[in-house]
């Protein structure tokens, strides 16, 4: 090969090498400026982002539900607290109404709901059960003497259910069937206590506010509910006023003067516990709220 040919070959080889180096440098430069990934890697990356988004959304929903639950719980607790607060507030009014023979219009309007719940939610029956249990506990630990002079006085009207021996306002407020159911259960508790006292050989004297002319009907009704074998039944004399507040105290004084020892008095009405000679124990049976000043005792029906 001539010298000229050799020189041309060297120049061509140098250009090829320079081109190759430039290409490598350009490729390297491109790799530094961008990131390339396969379709599989992209799919995995996007799936990860979706999973994170779903997890964050689920966490947000869970937090929202928890907050709502806490809010509802706090609201329920607050309402329960308010109901309890109202109940005791109205019970205080009820106590003073009984002590002072106040009319039902003495009560705040807020006590209407408390009166309804007291019966419909069973608190009245629970109070009856507790009171009767206290009386039974007392009589299980004491015994009458054999001379027959230790007596127990019981309110005969507690054995009798009458629509007219309660506040008319109460009947407008609560469900009538619920009221009568409560009256029947009350009578059941009173009869239960009566029968236990009989089994423990206590002489029982019943006192009723009903007039003497209803004696036969009263005796018939007492027998129909299982109340028999009492020692005496004291009725209101025809010349006594219908709502004589001293009816019970007058007969208690008379019994004591006759030599009887009053061991206990059992009644749901406050007038029975007023005055002298009340005896060793008083067992006040609970009454529905607003059932205080009884009016218009029926003398011819609804015994």
Automatic annotation (TrEMBL):
Keywords: Membrane, Transmembrane, Transmembrane helix. Pfam families: Acid_phosphat_B. The keyword Transmembrane applies. Residues 13-22 have a biased composition (Polar residues). InterPro entries: Acid_phosphat_B-like (IPR005519), HAD_sf (IPR023214). Residues 1-24 are annotated as: Disordered. The keyword Transmembrane helix applies. Gene3D superfamilies: HAD superfamily/HAD-like (3.40.50.1000). It comes from the Eukaryota. The chain crosses the membrane at residues 40-67. This is Uncharacterized protein At2g39920-like isoform X1. The lineage of its organism: Eukaryota, Viridiplantae, Streptophyta, Embryophyta, Tracheophyta.
């Amino acid at each position: 090969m001539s010298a000229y040919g050799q020189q041309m070959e060297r120049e061509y080889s140098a250009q090829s090498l320079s081109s190759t180096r430039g290409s490598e440098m350009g490729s390297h430069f491109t790799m530094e400026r961008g990131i390339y990934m396969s379709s599989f890697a992209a799919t995995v990356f996007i799936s990860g982002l979706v999973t994170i988004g779903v997890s964050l959304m689920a966490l947000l929903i869970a937090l929202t539900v928890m907050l709502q639950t806490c809010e509802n719980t706090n609201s329920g607790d607050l309402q329960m607290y308010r109901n309890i607060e109202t109940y005791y507030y109205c019970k205080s009014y009820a106590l003073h109404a009984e002590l002072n023979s106040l009319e039902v219009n003495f009560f705040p309007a807020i006590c209407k709901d408390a009166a309804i719940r007291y019966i419909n939610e069973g608190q009245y029956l629970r109070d009856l059960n507790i009171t009767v249990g206290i009386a039974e506990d007392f009589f299980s630990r004491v015994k009458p003497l054999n001379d027959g002079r230790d007596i127990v006085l019981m309110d005969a009207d507690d054995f009798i259910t009458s629509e007219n021996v309660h506040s008319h306002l109460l009947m407008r407020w609560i469900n009538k069937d619920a009221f009568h159911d409560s009256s029947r259960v009350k009578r059941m508790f009173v009869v239960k206590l009566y029968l236990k006292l009989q089994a423990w050989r206590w002489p029982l004297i019943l006192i009723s506010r009903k007039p003497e002319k209803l004696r036969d009907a009263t005796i018939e009704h007492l027998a129909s509910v299982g109340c028999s074998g009492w020692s005496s039944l004291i009725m209101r004399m025809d010349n006594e006023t219908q709502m004589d507040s001293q009816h019970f105290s007058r007969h208690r004084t008379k019994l004591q003067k006759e030599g009887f020892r009053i061991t206990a008095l059992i009644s749901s009405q406050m007038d029975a516990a007023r005055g002298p000679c009340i005896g060793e124990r008083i067992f006040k049976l609970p009454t529905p709220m607003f059932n205080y000043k009884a009016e218009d005792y029926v003398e011819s029906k609804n015994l």
